């Protein structure tokens, strides 16, 4: 039987193996692992790619979100507006600081934060907006930035899934005050372990972040801030500098795979829609199906691996019971959680494999 995995990192490694192996070997030869020239190079490379002034490499996307919120001064009881339809790390960063997540439901077509609902969620305690570009598809930053400027709120973009995705040729993560990326291995730009980065055009925030990620020190053993230890290490930085060169090519391939799914799937599946002027990086290719359990089992029995992003909306997670939300509070996100299925999606997915997936999906009834 043909097997189609959900993601094939081995295929990607095979395509760049000699470059990666050499880059890692050089770090091992130097035996210098933290805050060295490879991180500096990657931060420059990534800033150039993003067309953004500053990049700070950190330990993970989650750390990046926490440090970004700290850099803009988010404290206990502050309110941060964020989509309820996301990976939980977005909200974990807010509650880690003792701040309060104020959830906004998803738009039924784009699955992104319904930006038109943000205005009415703003109170005296609101300090920031933390939108997400979910599945690598840009959310409505035009509306978000307008609301934010009107109410003098800062915006941190969770671009942890949207490396290289654009809104009118601007790369997601560079539109708000700060943008946060994850280099978790399965992301479109993935390290070989945990990693993350924050970008900003604001020099003050940049210097604050450099200190925060490094025990709050600017000079060794002189601690101006109560800092944190969260740094992108030299091995990961060296790997990411190699992989960054291929990001646009990989994102293009993913877009081609997506196009073929959209034209090939004739079933009653519902596809995600995109705002005009935006280009997704197709981190996740999701379809909505009514009888999902049966659908996933049908594909699984035929050797096709699928996933769910995400099965339980954040407001209904057990860890957030104390926030007091109930079923029915965010109906669109709840319906998405019930119906969404993610299909195999990676740059190296070849046409015979994809054709097989499409054929099997079309034979499902
Ligand atoms: C992956 C992800 C994160 C967290 O990144 P880590 O590097 O895994 O900590 C945050 N937000 C979103 C939307 C993500 O997909």
Q: What is the residue-mean pLDDT, rounded to a whole number? A: 97
End-to-end CA span: 21 Å
Helix and strand sequence = HHEHEHEEHEEEEEHEEHHEEEHHEH
Helix fraction by DSSP (H/I, runs of at least 4): 25-40%
Bound molecules: pyridoxal-5'-phosphate
Percent range for β-strand residues: 15-25%
- SS-based structural class? alpha/beta
Unreliable sequence segments: none
Q: What is the oligomer described by this structure?
A: single chain
Described by strand count, sense and barrel closure, the largest sheet is: 7 strands, mixed
Q: Any idea what the shape is?
A: globular
Q: Please report the number of helical segments.
A: 11
Give me the count of strands.
15
The spatial strand order of the largest sheet comes to 1-9-8-5-4-2-3
Evaluate the radius of gyration: 21 Å
List the helices and strands and how they pair.
Elements: H1 9-30, H2 37-50, E1 54-58, H3 61-71, E2 79-83, H4 89-96, E3 100-104, E4 126-129, H5 141-151, E5 154-158, E6 166-167, E7 170-171, E8 178-182, E9 196-200, H6 203-212, E10 217-219, E11 222-223, H7 234-244, H8 247-264, E12 270-271, E13 278-279, E14 285-288, H9 292-301, H10 331-339, E15 340-343, H11 351-362
Parallel strand pairs: 2-3, 2-4, 4-5, 5-8
Antiparallel strand pairs: 1-9, 6-7, 6-13, 8-9, 10-11, 12-14, 14-15
This protein binds pyridoxal-5'-phosphate (PLP).
